[in-house]
Amino acid sequence: MINLFSKFTYSIYQLSGFDRNQQNTFKHPIFILLSFFLVAVMLLAYSNHFYNGFHFDDSHTIEDNHAIKELNVSAFFKDVTTFSSLPSNRSYRPYTTLENAIDYKIAGGLHPLAFHIHIFIFFLFTCATLLLFVKKLLDRIEFSKYNQFWGLLVAAVFGLLCANAETVNYIIQRSEIIAGFYILLGFTAFLSGGRWRKWHLYLIFPFIGFFAKEMALVFSPLLFLYFLIFEEEADLLHFYRPHEFKKCLRSFAKVFPSFILTLAFLVFYFSMLPDTFAPGGANRYNYLITQPLVLCHYILTFFIPYNLSADTDWVVFDSILDYRAIMGIIIISLLLYLALKASKKRETKLFSFGLLWFFIALLPSSSVLPFAEVLNDHRSFIPYMGLTIAFIFGAKYILETYLPRLIATTKGMNALVFLGLFFLFANAYGVHQRNKVWKDDTSLWYDVTQKSPKNGRGHMNYGLALMATGDYTKAETSFNKALELAPTYSSIYINLGILKNATGDKDKAIEYFDKALSLNSNSHKSLYYYGRFLFQHNDFEKTIVNLKKAIAISPNFLDTHELILKSYHHLEDWEGMKSFANSILETSPKDHLANKYIAIAANQKSIHKVLEAEIANTPSPEKYLNLSLKYYNNGLYEDCIRVAKMALELKADYPGAYNNIGIANFYLMNYKEAIEAYEKALKLKPDYQLAKNNLKNALERKNRLAMTTEGMDKVELSEHFINLSYRYYKEENYLKCITAAKKSIAIVPNAAAYNNICSAYNQLKQYHKAIKACKEALKLVTDHKLANGNLKYALQQRENQ
Questions:
Q1: Beta partners for 557?
Q2: Phi, psi of 56 (to 5 degrees)
Q3: I want to staple 45 with a disulfide (CB 3.0 to 4.6 A). Which of 58, 431, 579, 687 is the partner?
Q4: From CA 44, how far away is CA 22, in angstroms rounded?
């Protein structure tokens, strides 16, 4: 293998005319070929990830985050709420929010392809910058005359590392990649020397990274580490000795400007965090004693990615005497000792630097600040840059020191090349497999339930994925399993409420929503999904109440604004609609939705009229038929008939339209017209069973009415419909009550019928319509006690809303 490569290299030199005396250059033809080959392998490894979906924290930072729908750069940097719709997760990461908004704009919505392409390009840039950084570092210490190849090897191992697929696939964790890129760019600029170092211009890059994710704050301690090891050549194991301590002080003086910048940004960062922000972690002590074993997990996963999980079931240890805590502390202590000891020798400085980089870069997430999750595999992205350096140059030192005979032989070198290629291609294969896991919620959360079976949230999210596919039985099983593991987790009850509503069990759905709110009354998710449930069941007043509570907690959550505006629209509460739309425009002056509803409120067009106007732009008989059905379902029978006739204008032989005309007339008690419409439907489609059944009902009802009202004059007939209206009211059939009352008014206008309409609308909680009806009653009889009472009630209820 080595001989073959040597011949290949010689041929390339001959073809390119490359001067072999200039080996340490990026113009080296073999380096260029290998670089292109690496990019090709990385593209192949990640080729199946570009259409993978949004997952986990992507929900509240991207999918449910209304803020990214507008490219409002200044808002991202000024308003921390734009990062997430979840109050407890509102960290200050405006650069990341900006990137999400740009991708949303490019994609024209929530299409992950644009996001993944952007992230992958940044990942390639990060690997390229890692290569450049390593080469400059090696040039600085005069490591070899092939430093660019060593840099390429580091970039290859890091770029194809299977564990990094957890970061590349996880869209919101693009922040790790961005922060890592700017840390490396800062080091590269620093090592370039000249003005970059003299005027501390290299700090521009980590400063930009600070706005992507706070993990970039590790730049200063990493630069301090560089000064200690490579410029002052300190013996870190004996840093306390006077001579070595002076080296530490000199290093600190050099890094002082960087520390000042970091400290200043840290103060600013904390000032930007809202009171609602909460990492959600356990006891600091318990979290801290668990982290040594977590670090061991990250190291093991670097070499053997056997148990990668999007959401682990690790929990903190209760005592430092737990054998797992003891084992973790011992292993990490030994590794720290090894890293500090290795700082002394020239041959092991790179190993020391890389391993200590790994530990330092994990300090923000694996120390005294407890997070909700004990570990996350994406947290190791920046630390793995250091661990890759430690692995490669540590392995080189071991081979040269303890196995010199192995690398001196052709067979030995062939074996090493084979092992190296096996490691790289095995990781590339692992990346490809992990991409399959991250494909969609079903595959991802199934993987979590298998690898983290004690994670209640994992079972709940798998249930959500199953529910999205319509598999309600298995979804409920997963939700119940989640309840066993996390009985006080309110989100599980929310999802059970959604499931029960989907399966038609309204009462059980309400029970689960109530339970979720009792566990966490300040959960915007509970309030939102309960509000959406109420909207689906036409309880628009309560919808508005719950959703306004939700946006008070999380202003940018999902389509909350739209549901509130639609609720006002259903209620035809034009003032309420206008007021709420204006409140949106105060913070988002260009908000398309708010401006749309301002115009609707000005014209006072009903929700169906708006839909009708939209259909008029691209009319079809099917659209008009569906709209007529919507009118019918909302008790707007006259409009149902009118729109069905519009469908007939486009398609004269449309039996469905005639059937809709018939059923609307039936509920308007226009039985003659209903019968005529059904007969036309059956003439066009003789086997139309629904029309047959409806015709039979209409004939029976027409005959019954004729028998009941035979010999009645107008006054008596009007009174008959008032009594019928009252009967329907007592039966709680309020739409029929309104229809019968209108029939009475059509014969002889009277206050009693208007009062019945008012009472029915009060029961339907459509108070604006109730008020209108009661006012008509009082025009006819000014001292009508029932109408006055109903009007007072309607006005009071509307005010309470």
A1: 65
A2: 55, -115
A3: 431
A4: 32
CB 794 within 8 A of CB 772: no
The separation between CA 748 and the C-alpha centre of its own chain, rounded to angstroms, equals 59
Please say whether the beta carbons of 260 and 268 come within 8 A. no
Q: What is the largest CA-CA distance in the chain?
A: 120
Chain centroid offset of residue 288 CA = 29
Confidence bin at 1 (pLDDT 50/70/90) = low
Q: Are 238 and 45 in contact (CB under 8 A)?
A: no
For 46-161, where are the alpha helices, taking DSSP H only? 58, 73-78, 94-107, 112-140, 147-160
Count other C-beta atoms under 10 Å from residue 487's C-beta. 11
41-91 pLDDT tens trace: 999 999 999 999 999 899 989 998 888 988 999 999 999 989 998 888 889
Residues 6+ apart with CB under 8 A from 44: 428, 432
pLDDT at 14: 47
Reduced to 3 states (helix: H, G, I; strand: E, B; else coil), residue 677 is helix
CA distance 579 to 400: 76
Strand, coil or helix: 280: strand
Tokens 């939102």 identify what position? 528
**Which token pair is 613?**
């106007």
Please write down the HEC assignment for all residues of 456-499: HHHHHHHHHHHHHCCCHHHHHHHHHHHHHHCCCCHHHHHHHHHH
pLDDT at 412: 87
Looking at residue 65, the DSSP 8-state letter turns out to be B
Structure tokens, 388:
């890759």
Asked whether the CA dihedral 93, 96, 98, 104 is positive or negative, the reply is negative
Q: Tell me the whole-structure pTM to 2 decimals.
A: 0.78
Q: Which residue, 578, 569, 641, 577, is CA-closest to 608?
A: 569
Strands (E) across 156-276 are located at: none
Residue 47 burial (C-beta neighbours within 10 Å; 0-12, 13-18, 19+): exposed
In tens, the pLDDT along 110-134 reads: 999 999 999 999 999 999 999 999 9
**What is the Cα–Cα distance from 265 to 95, expressed in whole angstroms?**
14
Whether residue 642 contacts residue 609, with contact meaning beta carbons closer than 8 Å, is answered with: no
Where helices occur in 403-471 by DSSP H, the ranges are: 404-408, 410-437, 441-451, 456-468
Q: How far is CA 164 from CA 100, 376, 492, 668, in A?
A: 20, 12, 30, 66
3 state DSSP class of 72: coil
Inter-residue contact 176 to 215 (CB < 8 Å): yes
By the 8 A CB rule, do 778 and 751 touch?
Answer: yes
Tokens of 393: 């140059």
Strand partners, 371: 280
The token pair that represents 305 in the structure block: 């990615």
In whole angstroms, what is the distance from residue 89 CA to residue 59 CA? Answer: 12
Q: Of 296, 295, 297, 282, which is closest to residue 369 (Cα–Cα)?
A: 282
User: What is the residue whose two structure tokens read 């620093």?
Assistant: 190
Q: What is the DSSP letter of 321?
A: T
pLDDT tens readout for residues 471-496:
999 999 999 999 999 999 999 999 99
**How many residues make up the chain in this entry?**
801
Q: Which residue's entry shows tokens 């630097």?
A: 353
- Given a contact cutoff of 8 angstroms between Cβ atoms, the answer to whether 219 and 209 are in contact is yes
Q: Are 717 and 706 contacting, i.e. CB atoms less than 8 angstroms apart?
A: no
